[in-house]
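User: My advisor, Dr. K., asked me to get a structural model of this assembly before our group meeting. I'm new to this, so sorry if the format is off. These are the inputs:
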Amino acid sequence: MPDWKAEIRGRLARLRLEATLEAAIVEELAQDLDDCYAALLAGGASEADAYQQTLLQLQGDEFLRRELQCVAPRYALDPTLLGTNRKTNMIADFVQDLRFGARMLAKQPGFTLIAVITLALGIGANTAIFSVVNAVLLRPLPFADDARLVTIWAKLPVAGIKWLFTSPAEFADYRERTQGFAQVGAYGGADFTLTGRGEAERLTGAIVSHEMLPLLGIKPMLGRSFTAEEEQEGRTNVVVLSHGLWQRRFGGEAQLVGQTILLNDQPCTVVGIMPPGFQFPGTDTELWKPLLLTAKERAEGERGSRWLNTIARLKPGVTMAQAQTDLETLADQLRREYPRFYGGNTGWGLKLVSLRKELAGDMGSALPLLLAVVGCVLLIACANVANLLLARAATRQKEIVVRAALGAQRGRIIRQLFSESLLLAVAGGALGIVLALFSNTQLLKLGPPELTSGGPIKLDWRVLLFTTAVALLTAVLFGLAPAWQATKFNLTETLKDSGRNSSAGRGRLRNLLVVSEIALALMLLVSAGLVLKSFYRLIQIDPGFDAANVLTMQLALSPERYREGAQQRAFYEQVLRQIEALPGVQAAGAVHNLPMSGSGNTRNFSIEGVQETRLNVDFYQASPNYFTAMGMHLANGRFFTSNDREGQPPVAIINETLARHYFPDQNPLGKRLKMGNATGPFPWLPIVGVVRDVKHNGLDEETKPALYVSYLQSPLPDWKYYSLYLTVRTQADPLAMVETLRRTVHGLDQNQPIYRVATLEQLLSRSLAARKFSLLLLALFAALALTLAVIGLYSVLAYAVTQRRQEIGIRLALGAQRQDILKLVLKEGMTLTATGIGLGLLASVAVTRWLKSLLFGVSPNDAMTYAAIALLLTAVALLACWLPARRATTVDPLIALRQE
Amino acid sequence: MAYVNTQKLDRELKKGSAELLILSLLEARQRHGYEIRKQIEIRSGGVLKFNTASLYPLLYRLEKRGWIEGKWVEKAGERRRRFYRLTKDGKKVLAAQRSIWESFVAAINRVTEPEHA
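Assistant: The format is fine. Below is the predicted structure of the whole assembly, which you can bring to the meeting.
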C-alpha cells in the first residue's frame, strides 16, 4: 500500500496546522485514499493505475487548504491521542483499565498476595470493630422509636456516687411531676422460684411499673400487660411471661393466659406472653411482675430505699436538653421539700442518659477508641502497600515511560495505575470481610455481655457499606501517591536514561511512609502498654478477700413456707451447719449482698452523738463464718459468733474506710451506730470489729464505708431472708462440690433451687471482663501494627540495598570493609526508626489522654511505659534492618559493577 | 404555493446542494468519509462524485457549524475510523434545506415541463 500520509502532509505543510490536528486529518484522509486504492485494485486496475487514480482524489486541494485555513484556528478535531479516549468512553476505558490491571497483578502473584493480605488485615480489623460498634452503638434497639428512650439517674457526689438508683417514692415524683416525658416507667430485678410444674426452678424476672412494657413500644403477643390498678396492694399477683419461658416450661399452650402458676409459692395469674426476641432488662429475663406502689412505698422514710431503674420516653418535640431542664426544676423542688435526703451539700442531682448509651455500658466508651486504633492499623497497612507499589512502579518505569512517549497523558496513566490499586483494595476488602466474620465469632466468646445487649452482632448493610467505603478510601490512600510519583518524570531525560532517575523523590516518599508507620505503631504500642500496665496494677489490687477455692451460689426461700424470720434463720443455720460438716469444706457462710456479684445494698446510718445522718454505706447482713469463708482479714476486734443472735445485744462490724472516715484517730471499738437517722426506730449497735476493706463492685472502684450486721440479729425488723448468697471455701476445686451442695440443700427442702453458681474467681474475672477485652484487642492490634511497620521498614531497606548494589560494589571495590557497609545500611534504617520513634513519642503524649477511661493507676504519660516501648521497637527495628544490611555485605563487587 | 425568495434560492442552490447530500446520508446512521463519498456516487448512479479533497473540507465545515459531529471509533481488529453523525441542529437544518430543495425542484418542474397546447 502506498504511503499516502507523506503525500497529504506535503500538501498541508504550508498551513502549519497544530500537530495533533494535522495528524488526525492526515490519518483520516489517508484512510480514505487507502479505501479508494483498495477498491480500484479490487476493480481490476493495475497498481500503477490505481495509484494514479487515487492521487486524483487530492486534486483541487486548494479548496481543502482554504477550508482548513478557516476551520483550523478556532476548531480542533477532538485532540484524541493514542491510548486515550477520555471524552468519548470513560466507562469502557475503566473496564479496560481494570482488565489490564488484573492481568498485571496476576503476573506478580507474590506482590499481589502480600498486598491483599496486608490490606485484608487492616480492613478486616476495621470491619470487625465496626460491626461491634454497629451492634452496640449504632443499630436501633429492638424497641419502638428507641431514640426517644432515656434513663433517669441521680448522682450523689458527696458519697462519690455517680449512678444512684431510684426509690419508688422518687419514681412516683418523676412520673407525676415532670412535663417532658410522654411516659415514665421503672423496673427492678427480682428472682422468682417457679414450682408446681416439674422441678422447682429459679427464674430471673423483673418488677415493672405498668408503663414499662407499653413505654418500650412492644405489645404482648398474647394477652395484655399490666394496668395501673395492679400496682396496688393485693393486686400484684399477675405475671407476664417471656416467649422462651412459655415455650420451655409450658409447651407454648395458648390457654395458659388466664391460668394460675406458682411463683414463690404464691398463685399468680398469667395475663400475657411477650413476643419472641423481647429481652428486657437482661437477656435472661423470663418474666415480669407489677411494681407495688402504695402509700407505704411512697412514704418519706422510704425515699432512701433506692433499687429501681427509671426509663422514660421523651414527648414528641421535646429534646434531651429540655427534658433535663424539666428534671432540674423537679430536683430543686425535691431539695426544698426533703432537705434530709437531697438538701445541704450532698450535691444530689438528676441526669438523663440515652437508653442506648446506658445499654452500651463500659464498651460504649472503649469502642470509639478501638475504632481509632484499627484506623491506625489500616493506615500502617496502607503505608506498607504504598511502599510495595512504589517499589513496583520503579520496575515498571519503562512501561510507563513508553506509554507516555506514545502520547498517553499523565492523568490517563495515573488512572491506569489507580485502577490496579482499586483492584487490590477490593480484593483486600473481600478477604477482610471474611476475616471479620471469622474473628467476630471468636471475639464474642471473649467479650463482656454488654457486647450483645443491642442484639446479636451481624454483618448488616451498615457494616458492608462501611467496609466498601473503607476499601475505597484505602485505595485512594495507598494508590494515589505512588501513581503520582510514578508518573512524575521528564520524558526525554527518562527515555535517555532508560528509566533510572527520579528515584530520589521516590526514596523520600518511601522513607516518609516508613517513618509514619513506625510513629503510628509506637503510638499503638504505647497505648497498649499503658492499658496493660493498668491491668497489671488492677489485678495487683487486693480485693480484700481470697478468691481462690470459694464457691458462691444463691439460695432463695419461699416467703410462703418460710413466713417468719425465725423460720428462715433456722433453715439457713441448718444448711450452713450441714455444709460445713461436708468433707472438703473449710468454712461456709452466708451474706445478702455479695461482692462482685452485681448485687448492691446501701443504707444510711447515724453515729451516736452526731446529729447528721451519714449516707450510703455498703450494708451486709452476714453469717458468723462469712468472713472466714471469704478469706477476709480482721483489723481490729472480732468477727461475729453464733452467739450474736436474736435475744442477744445486737452488734456491728465496720470496714477500715468507715473507721478512717468517721472515727479518725480514735478506736472505733465500742462506739455505737444506728441504721437510718439518729432518732429512728432502730437499735444502737456497738462496734465489735473492724475488717479490712473489700472491693464490692470492682477492683478499680474506691472502697466505700461498709457496715456488717449479723444475719441472726438483723436490726431491720421487717427484713426477710428471702435470698442469701452462700459462700463455701473448699479444700480443692470448688466446682467439684456443686452437686454435693445441691443435694445437701435439697435434703432439707426439695423445693429450694440453688442458682447463679459461680466461683468467686469467676465473679472477680467477670468484673474485669470489659477491661480485659479492651486490653486484649488493643494488644492484638498493637502487635499487628508492630508487625506491619517492621515489615515496612524491612522492605524499604531491602529495596534500597538492591537499588544501591552498584554503589555498594564500588565502595567495596575501593576498599570499604564489610563492616562499613553493614554500618551504612544499619545507620540508614536506624535513622528512619529513630525519627519514627521520636515523632511517635510526641504523638503519644498528645493522644494517650483519650485513653483515660481505660487506665488505672497509670498516668497517660507514664515515662516507664514510653521508654520500654521505644526500646522494644528499637530492638525489633534493629533486627529488621540487620537482615538487609547483612545482605548488603554479601554484594560481590565484580558482579555488581558488571550489571548495568 | 410556497413563495421562494430568489436571492436565497440562488445562494442555497450553489452552496447547499452538496451539504444537503451529506446531511441526508447521515440522517439514517453514522458513516465515515469514504462511505459518504461512495454512497453519493452509487445513489446518484455515478452522476454525482466528490473527490477526497472536496468532500472532507465540507465535512469539517459542517462539523464546525455544529450540524454533524465526528468521532474516532475503535473497533477490535480494525483501524480506528472517524465516523460522522447528524446532530440535533443538523436535523433541523436538514429538514429546512429539504423543504427549500423540494420547493425549488417543484418550481423548476413547473417551469420546465413541456407546454401542452
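One thing worth pointing out at the meeting: Residues 583 and 730 of chain A are 9 Å apart (CA to CA).

User: Perfect, thanks a lot.
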